[in-house]
Specification:
This protein has about 525 residues and is mainly α. It has a single domain, classed as Growth Hormone, Chain: A (Up-down Bundle), CATH 1.20.1250. It is built from 20 helices and 6 strands. The strands form 3 sheets. Strands 1-2 form a two-stranded antiparallel sheet. Strands 3-6 form a two-stranded parallel ribbon. The chain has a two-stranded antiparallel ribbon with strand order 4-5. The longest helix has 30 residues, at about 345-375.
Length: about 525
């Protein structure tokens, strides 16, 4: 066994079942080892998820701007963002099989390099030599390629925690990997980068993240597992993929958790796609909606951190999750209400901060609880099914929210901040507010707010597909209602058996012993 300098050492006895499974004789002493290299593995996996989220969130924070740049409708831009929700519906299952069958390192190598290929195609779509009719299909193709491997970075969260971390750090590990760092940063900086540097610069910058991710995975991720397991459950092993799928689909409590976590997180993802549309018709700038989503994800990291530390210590997974979802639904109901009222920036930010803290704190706990509820099914299997339903329900609710949109009122047409290019005055020639490549947010373009006038929309010669935004007040109320339904249903109907915790109690080391920290 290869270890670094040991901080503390002790031994533990595996049960007869575990000793036989590992090929050891009955009663043989083994060490549960927690390696310092786990932090490098955690960083690599977290960074890959961060870079994937940056690719995903390149469009929705500035949907109207990107629609103008690619000469398409906002609905077509939403399709680009939805690629990271539609394709993972099927590829989450593939990612689960890949992780459970071949391990962490091969799966991450495939994911990191394929994501880089998708990012390069996005950059190519902005090049001067690219025919205008090809630009949008090429960027959509690049986005789709990156989306096919995104589930690998999401599904592996609980597997990293189980295989590399001890019982007292598993929830913390899951929280670190699953936190929305990329969503936070992309929502904050994407509109600003496009405004001052252009779309091409933004794509090139964001392509640097998967490049670095591919390199550190190739040279830093040397193995899928540590030489010695960090906990009794990791030593005991899990079921193979296909038997695990059959067993988990018969687990009623897991099905309830899967559907309801999918509902809440799917709504969260849908909101990230349509947030700008929801707010701009009520007079809020795209930069403000980007700030709202960025702050929401950013503060959520702190909420998730404290909640993960709490459940690692208390093991009150179910109770904590139910409380967080109830608080989350209350916060989002208030947020949706005040977002329908113009000039309510401060209340929107306050309620949004509360929603981000509670919703983001609940997510890693839900992932750990899925493992507890389905043990001894492999972590990749349970996590993959959860993510599959998150994306499925996210896509469904995105289309439902869009379908519930209504034509803008006259007041909204005057005060909306959605359409970025309008004529100076009625009867004049159409004058774009954009300067630079292709008369839009281009390679060196920026938006000149002095030409902006929200009184009417237009279709210029080169921008024939720009459509009028819609009022999404009804959609926002339905969103809040679904969040409240999810919290009530989970509180009433879900009961976790904490199977992994109970199994580990029968495999605990003798009193006074602990695992090796190497």
């Amino acid at each position: 066994m290869e270890t670094n300098q040991q901080d503390s050492t002790s031994t533990a006895l595996l049960s007869d079942r575990d000793s036989q499974q590992d090929g050891d004789s009955d009663g043989e002493e083994v060490k549960y080892v927690v390696y310092k290299k786990r932090w490098l593995v955690l960083f690599i996996v977290t960074f890959l998820g961060f870079s994937s989220d940056m690719i995903w969130m390149s469009f929705s924070p500035a949907a109207t701007i990107m629609a103008d740049y690619y000469n398409v409708s906002i609905n077509e831009i939403n399709v680009v963002s939805l690629a990271h929700m539609i394709l993972p519906i099927g590829f989450s299952f593939v990612a689960s099989w890949l992780l459970d069958s071949y391990g962490l390192r091969p799966s991450l190598l495939i994911g990191s390099w394929v994501a880089l290929i998708g990012s390069v195609l996005r950059v190519i779509s902005t090049m001067h030599f690219m025919p205008s009719s090809w630009r949008f299909p090429v960027v959509l193709t690049g986005q789709a390629i990156a989306a096919t491997v995104a589930p690998i970075f999401n599904v592996c969260t609980t597997k990293v925690s189980e295989q590399w971390f001890g019982p007292k750090q598993r929830s913390l590990s899951t929280m670190v990997v699953s936190a929305s760092y990329g969503i936070t940063l992309a929502n904050l900086i994407t509109p600003i980068i496009i405004k001052y540097k252009g779309v091409q610069f933004m794509f090139i910058l964001y392509a640097g993240f998967p490049l670095f991710g591919a390199l550190i995975t190739t040279f830093g991720m040397t193995s899928s597992k540590p030489p010695t397991p960090p906990s009794p459950s990791a030593a005991a092993g899990v079921q193979p993929f296909w038997p695990g799928v059959k067993q988990i689909l018969k687990n009623r409590q897991f099905i309830i958790l899967m559907l309801l976590v999918g509902l809440e997180s799917g709504l969260f993802d849908a909101l990230s796609v349509v947030a700008e549309e929801m707010m701009c018709t009520h007079g809020y700038e795209p930069t403000f909606s980007g700030l709202v989503m960025g702050v929401q994800s950013g503060v959520g990291v702190f909420g998730a951190l404290f909640a993960s530390l709490y459940v690692d210590r208390t093991k009150l997974f179910e109770e904590t999750l139910k409380v967080l979802y109830c608080l989350s639904s209350t916060s989002v109901a208030l947020m949706m209400t005040v977002s329908c009222i113009p000039h309510m920036q401060a209340p929107i930010l306050i309620t949004n901060i509360a929603y981000g803290i509670f919703s983001s704190a609940a997510y890693p706990i839900a992932l750990e609880l899925s493992v507890e509820t389905s043990y001894p099914v492999a972590e990749g299997t349970s996590n993959g099914l959860i993510l599959m339903f998150i994306h499925l329900e996210g896509v469904i609710f995105t289309f439902i929210l869009e379908a519930l949109s209504q034509p803008m009122t006259n007041y909204e047409r005057i005060h909306q901040k959605c359409n970025p290019t309008t004529p100076h005055h009625q009867g004049s020639n159409v004058t774009s507010g954009y300067h630079g490549y292709n008369n839009s947010y281009g390679i060196h373009g920026y938006y000149d707010s002095s030409t902006y006038h929200p009184s009417r929309f237009y279709n210029s010669v080169t921008k024939t597909n720009v459509s009028e935004p819609k009022d999404m007040t009804v959609a926002m109320m339905v969103f809040a209602g679904l969040e409240c339904f999810q919290a009530i249903a989970l509180t009433l109907f879900f009961k976790s058996g904490n199977r992994r915790l109970k199994a580990e109690e029968t495999m605990e080391p003798a009193e006074g012993e602990s695992s090796v920290n190497a």
